[in-house]
Design goal:
CATH class of the largest domain: Alpha Beta
Function: Methylates ribosomal protein L11.
CATH topology of the largest domain: Rossmann fold
Number of helices: 10
Number of strands: 14
Shape: globular
Enzyme class: transferase
Largest sheet: 7 strands, mixed
GO biological process, one term: methylation
Structural class: alpha/beta
Distance between the termini: 53 Å
Strand content: 25-35%
Protein name: Ribosomal protein L11 methyltransferase
Helix content: 25-40%
CATH architecture of the largest domain: 3-Layer(aba) Sandwich
Number of domains: 2
Keywords: Cytoplasm, Methyltransferase, Ribonucleoprotein, Ribosomal protein, S-adenosyl-L-methionine, Transferase
Order of helices and strands: EHEHEHEHEEEHEHEHEHEHEHEE
Strand order of the largest sheet: 10-9-8-11-12-14-13
CATH superfamily of the largest domain: Vaccinia Virus protein VP39
């Protein structure tokens, strides 16, 4: 099966907004090409293998948000829907860039394999190393290896938001904890929780493809006995209470979760949230506090933020 690809040229600041629009108009996956991600990443002091800049040369300086649609869909109608949504953004206080739209056909074989050249083994926390399944790597002392095949439309684990989440899990997790991963994507955070000592991990995602890929990665790392991957909404498929809940999604979804996520948290549990752009960090914190949380930690990496919170006992 081949795919129609639509891309929008924008800025890092508008990544979350444009990505949401693609999902809303029915994209089967969203890919972000942000050259600054890779250029900064090669300077990361935790990077195991520095990559030459040329490897990450996309041939453009703009951020491109790319959506994928089946060839059975009316691609011109999708472009019109996209243009209409973009035209309504107006002045939102974020630089949007050119918003230039382009399209092309992507052949299945190319889509499945071409992106792999951008994914290299990375050490992303004190102990965690993320390794693509097709690469060889010699484990060093005290390192814990997560082997990942992220599939065509999910993260490799080297993005700032994922790194901050894993560092937070590593800092706060205790042996025998229960962890819930909301919006599990390729399953990286769930596997990190298991490898760092969680007794049980529940991974949840609305996307059936994410559930499929997460299950495959759980099996690849041999954590089937600890990690259970479920398809659906949090409130529909979970009755358990967790010691740690992690949600690496988007700011607006985190704010919505903050209204009732306490129902799924044990006493003294941590809520680790990321996927939050700089412009929305205060907005998320304000809503967490309003909904009865105490901010424990706020970390920032370039355009992205990770907030760790606990239920404020004075509000219980």
């Amino acid at each position: 099966m081949n795919w129609n690809e639509i891309s929008v040229s924008t800025t890092t600041q508008a990544t979350e907004i444009i990505s949401n629009i693609f999902i809303e108009i029915g994209s089967k996956g969203v890919m972000i090409e942000d050259p600054s991600d890779f250029y900064y990443q090669t300077k990361d002091e935790l990077a195991w293998d520095y990559i030459e800049k040329e490897v990450f040369d996309y041939g453009h300086e703009d951020v491109k948000i790319i959506g994928y649609f089946s060839q059975e869909e009316d691609i011109e109608q999708k472009i019109n829907d996209l243009k209409e949504r973009l035209s309504k953004l107006g002045d939102i206080g974020v630089e949007l860039g050119t918003l230039e739209i382009s399209k092309k056909i992507i052949y299945q074989k190319n889509w499945e394999n071409e992106w792999k050249k951008y994914f290299k083994t990375q050490k992303i926390s004190k102990n965690i190393v993320i390794k693509p399944s097709w690469e060889n790597y010699e484990k060093q002392a005290d390192e814990k290896i997560i082997e990942i095949d992220p599939g065509m439309a999910f993260g490799t684990g080297t993005h700032e938001t994922t790194k901050m989440c894993i560092n937070a899990i590593e800092k706060y997790i205790k042996s025998e904890d229960i962890l819930i991963d909301i919006g599990c994507g390729s399953g990286i955070l769930s596997i990190a929780g298991a490898i760092l000592g969680a007794k049980k991990v529940i991974a949840v995602d609305l996307d059936k493809l994410a559930v499929k890929i997460s299950k495959e990665n759980v099996e690849l790392n041999n954590y089937q006995d600890i990690i259970e991957v479920r398809h659906g909404n949090l409130t529909d498929v979970i009755t358990e209470k967790a010691d740690i809940i992690v949600a690496n999604i988007i700011a607006d979804a985190i704010v919505m979760l903050s209204e009732n996520i306490k129902d799924f948290m044990k006493e003294d549990a941590y809520f680790i949230s990321s996927g939050i752009i700089n412009e929305k960090a205060d907005y998320v914190k304000e809503n967490l506090i309003k909904n009865g949380f105490e901010i424990i930690e706020h970390n920032n990496d370039k355009e992205w933020n990770c907030i760790v919170a606990k239920v404020n006992k004075t509000d219980v």
